[in-house]
Write a structure and sequence with these properties.
By secondary structure, the protein is an alpha/beta fold. α5 packs parallel to α7, α12 runs antiparallel to α13 and α18 runs antiparallel to α19.
Length: 457
Amino acid sequence: MDVLEIDAASNRGIEEIRDLKEKMGFMPVLGKYKVYIVDEVHMLTTEAFNALLKTLEEPPAHVVFVLATTDVQKLPPTILSRCQRFDFRKIAPAVIRQRLEEVASSLDVPVEEGVYPLIVKRADGGMRDAISLLDQCLAFSPEGLTVETAYQVLGLVRQEALQTLLQAILEQDPQSLFIQVDRLMQDGVEPVQLLRDLAEHCRNLWMLLVCGAETELVLANAQERQSMLQQGQALGARRLQEMLTMLDQGAAGGKGRGNARFMAEALLAGLLIDPPRRETEPSQRAAQPAGSAAADRAVAQPREPVKPEGTLPPTMKTAAVPKEEAKAETAPKEKPASAGKPTPPSQNVSGLASAVWDQILQGAKSRRIVLHAFLTASVEQLYQDHLLTINFDPEKGKFHRERAEEAENKRILLEVARQILDPELQIAYGFKKEELDKDPVKKALAMFGEAVVEIKN
């Protein structure tokens, strides 16, 4: 009776605050103070905060306000300066488990030992969430709670399934990988949850490699730790770190998407077809035979950025210059222009070498996987005087060009390309000129856009 809770998300206007100020005149009935708990206080309007400001500055002697929020940054500084702040942090997993065991014991319901770590993991440090999840599981199976039931209710992916997925990626086995993904989807696992659990599994493997098999940062029994450690050693810490980053970005980008399954499968296919490669140490490169495939790959993938001065290196030119231009290069070369005169564009235009473009694609993929998908649809890449022009097919590539031109995608690509190709690089997008010249209709559509027009006689 002396403790009143107000939901600021539903009662967020100035009228509700005025009504609250009128009720503060009544003295407490049972205790010494009358306590007002305002939950989600950051949802109040600016006018409501202004109305509450004077009351917080000079509250009645018998009134105590408790302002609760999950987003303290949204509170005005004038409110924060008049309050004493207490930050509640996440509760330790051991404390949550102990409380869950006490609740299950009081209800006299048998619960398997493996259920508690699953609920603690899903609660993520929240005691109320943990108890709510336990209540949901018991409602589904009131006579007893098994690990199988917990997995089904919580929507988590089993440890064995995660290890099977990673093993398929490690062995480059697409059939096994996508069959397992399909089974998980049929069992009701959401695609985004699958990516989250797989990312967390990679994190646990990485922690076991870095911190040791006995680390308390991983919730697993001794048998699970041993099998996880073996798999982590096979993958390596560097590759696990890169996979973790890509999976986390994919899970964040898949929220609210209708085609989340396709996105998840495409991301896993990227890990399968083109897995992140570990850095080759100089001592390892020296130990490789000159004609071995590993040595050839090491040579074909330069790590230092390419910084052209005016034109690309000759080796890059011959990789992408058409036959007509290759013949022109056999003619006697003109004297180089003086330093004060700019080089004519006709002497500086070149198709971008496939090796350099592959490096740019991989860099974009590590930053944002959807950007990699848009760029792979391009049909031509031209480099001229610090300008990289990326051309798309005028008929099939309009969507990909529009998405690639978005501000965030263009910013990421510019940062990656400048590190690899040219620190002063600029990027432009267009359509392949040859295709436009062949078909005047395509050229007009590329210039003016297209629309459905109804023609009446």
